[in-house]
Write a structure and sequence with these properties.
It comes from Papio anubis. Residues 58-142 form the Armadillo repeat-containing domain. With 249 residues, this protein is an all-alpha fold. Helix content is 59%, strand content 0%. It has helices at residues 3-16, 60-72, 76-89, 93-101, 104-109, 117-130, 134-152, 155-163, 180-200, 202-205, 214-218, 221-229, 236-245. The longest helix has 21 residues, at 180-200. It is elongated, with a radius of gyration of 20 Å.
């Protein structure tokens, strides 16, 4: 599948396979406190840091410049270059924490909805590298699910989205101890996909999906049992959402 339609579900599959959905139940909620003492390199402008000629690992001040540039510019060339530089620097564990503490994850995450497919891919690659850090994963869940929910509302995207390969740990997002915000999003994802399948008539024809695909996970017995177990959830909003879904399982 090619073109913008294909790029959307491929992007979703890339993030789902990137590790952002892993170990949600082990995530900590605390933030690291305290200042970092880092040696400062000679000052360079933010745009200079994206020109491909600067090979050193960026320090906190330089990363902050880069994030400000990414947030403030509308130039697609500069955005893409900034995302490439951030993605490269996010491969280093120290910078994974620094970028989070500078508020960089939502800034990068906002670019996954950009109309430019190349920018979308560079943002996904940067989030992929950032997701290696366990403390970053909860923030990146939120960003991934925003993208998935947008895709799941479009019937034309449904089949491609369901073909995306997903690790089985994705189902841990349906566990009762997961944060309410995450639970409501993944339940809405399930609901949207079912609604789109009905519109497209796919539930009747049952297309072939491979083991490990999102369809295989969401329509398997384990997912059904996890959703049914949420009927006893302590939060009324989660419980209400589950009660609207159970008749469709």
């Amino acid at each position: 599948m090619g073109g913008p339609r294909g790029a959307g579900w491929v992007a979703a599959g890339l993030l789902l396979g990137a590790g952002a959905c892993y170990c949600i139940y082990r995530l900590t909620r605390g933030r690291r406190q305290g200042d970092r003492e880092l040696g400062m390199r000679p000052s360079k402008s933010a745009e200079d840091l994206t020109d491909g000629s600067y090979d050193d690992v960026l320090n906190a001040a330089q990363l902050q410049k880069l994030l400000y540039l990414l947030e403030s510019t509308e130039d697609p060339v500069i955005i893409e270059r900034a995302l490439i530089t951030l993605g490269n620097n996010a491969a280093f564990s120290v910078n994974q924490a620094i970028i989070r503490e500078l508020g960089g994850i939502p800034i990068v995450g906002n670019k996954i909805n950009h109309s430019n497919q190349s920018i979308k891919e560079k943002a996904l690659n940067a989030l992929n590298n950032l997701s290696v850090n366990v403390e970053n994963q909860i923030k990146i869940k939120v960003q991934v699910l925003k993208l998935l929910l947008n895709l799941s509302e479009n019937p034309a995207m449904t089949e491609g989205l369901l073909h995306a390969q997903v690790d089985s740990s994705f189902l841990s997002l349906y566990d009762s101890h997961v944060a309410k915000e995450i639970l409501l999003r993944v339940l809405t994802l399930f609901q949207n996909i079912n609604n789109c399948l009905k519109i497209e008539g796919h539930l009747a024809v049952q297309p072939t999906f491979t083991e490990g695909s999102l369809f295989f996970l969401l329509h398997g017995e384990e997912c059904a049992q996890k959703i049914k177990a949420l009927v006893d959830h302590h939060d009324a909003e989660v419980k209400e959402k589950v009660l609207t879904i159970i008749p469709k399982i």
